[in-house]
């Protein structure tokens, strides 16, 4: 039942995105005037598209989201494919419609769209593919990068930095961007070469990839909480002539790193209630100062 509910939610989001796209549409016709397949794109063209995708969110706005950066990514290839000015105009108008996709795996979608543009598919078909893949690519990107790879790289870099090594931030940047740029350029070529055949493969593996990456990411985040969230109390319990350290004698016996876990869960709960990261950082600093002043932490 949960699976059906999830599918229904995805379908509802897809319909909403399609409505948003159509609301900003100024396309005059659905078919291209020149229906002959366009000039094939070279590896240089695809690499250029991947480089330009770095500016995807440069003109982000709340009406069309990433539309300006998305069109900027595609313009050189579209000019090569569409020699007819009217076709180029209609294509550019369609690509200025609402779009919101993960910025790291966007090149898969742009490569796929360029393959469809080269084949002179109907504009409505290309639009439908864009809308259908926004959500899956966003889910895969979030699970793979934000929940998995970023915590792993940050943990490695932070551990080196805590030991006094200057290579901590350098290692973090190198590790994170090795996967980032490898996928950015690799997915661009894969999306273009696979064409429409990649859609069925993506739909069948999206949930598996997202689920696996989420599990790995949550495991890594749990390890980071135990390793890097440091919280302890110097309080002692006095029972007659006996003195028991609350931290070592009670809390650590119940569960090691119990206080860091509790604090992390409290912060998570506040985030779910809508507290901003800035407020949570301020609250953390305040708790630390007050706790140290009164001898509680």
Automatic annotation (TrEMBL):
Superkingdom to which the source organism belongs: Bacteria
Keyword list, A-Z: Cell membrane, Membrane, Phosphotransferase system, Sugar transport, Transmembrane, Transmembrane helix, Transport
Membrane topology of the entry: Multi-pass membrane protein
Pfam families for the chain: EIID-AGA (PF03613)
A Gene Ontology biological process term: phosphoenolpyruvate-dependent sugar phosphotransferase system
GO cellular component: plasma membrane
Chief location: membrane
TM region(s), chain numbering: 137-160, 166-188, 209-229, 278-296
Protein's cellular compartments: Cell membrane
Keyword Hydrolase annotated: no
Listed name of the protein: PTS system mannose/fructose/sorbose family transporter subunit IID
């Amino acid at each position: 039942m949960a699976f059906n509910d999830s599918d229904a939610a995805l379908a509802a989001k897809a319909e909403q995105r399609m409505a948003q796209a159509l609301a900003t549409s100024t396309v005059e016709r659905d078919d291209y005037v020149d229906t002959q397949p366009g000039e094939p794109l070279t590896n240089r063209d695809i690499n250029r598209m991947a480089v330009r995708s770095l500016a995807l969110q440069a003109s982000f706005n709340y009406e069309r989201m990433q539309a300006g950066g998305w069109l900027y990514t595609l313009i050189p290839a579209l000019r090569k494919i569409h020699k007819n000015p009217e076709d180029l105009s209609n294509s550019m108008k369609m690509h200025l419609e609402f779009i919101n996709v993960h910025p790291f795996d966007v090149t898969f979608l742009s490569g796929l769209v360029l393959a469809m543009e080269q084949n002179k598919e109907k504009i409505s078909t290309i639009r439908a593919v864009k809308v259908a893949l926004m959500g899956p690519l966003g889910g895969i990107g979030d699970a793979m990068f934000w929940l998995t790879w970023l915590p792993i790289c940050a943990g490695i870099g932070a551990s080196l930095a805590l030991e006094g090594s200057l290579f901590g931030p350098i290692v973090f940047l190198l590790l994170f961007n090795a996967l980032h740029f490898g996928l950015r350029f690799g997915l661009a070529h894969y999306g273009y070469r696979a064409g429409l055949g990649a859609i069925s493969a993506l739909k069948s593996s999206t949930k598996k990839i997202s689920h696996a990456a989420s599990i790995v990411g949550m495991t890594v985040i749990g390890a980071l909480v135990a390793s890097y969230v440091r919280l302890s109390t110097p309080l002692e319990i006095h029972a007659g002539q006996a003195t028991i350290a609350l931290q070592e004698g009670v809390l650590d016996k119940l569960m090691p790193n119990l206080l860091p876990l509790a604090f992390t869960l409290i912060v998570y709960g506040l985030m779910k209630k809508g507290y901003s990261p800035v407020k949570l950082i301020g609250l953390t600093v305040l708790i630390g100062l007050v706790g140290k002043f009164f001898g509680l932490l």
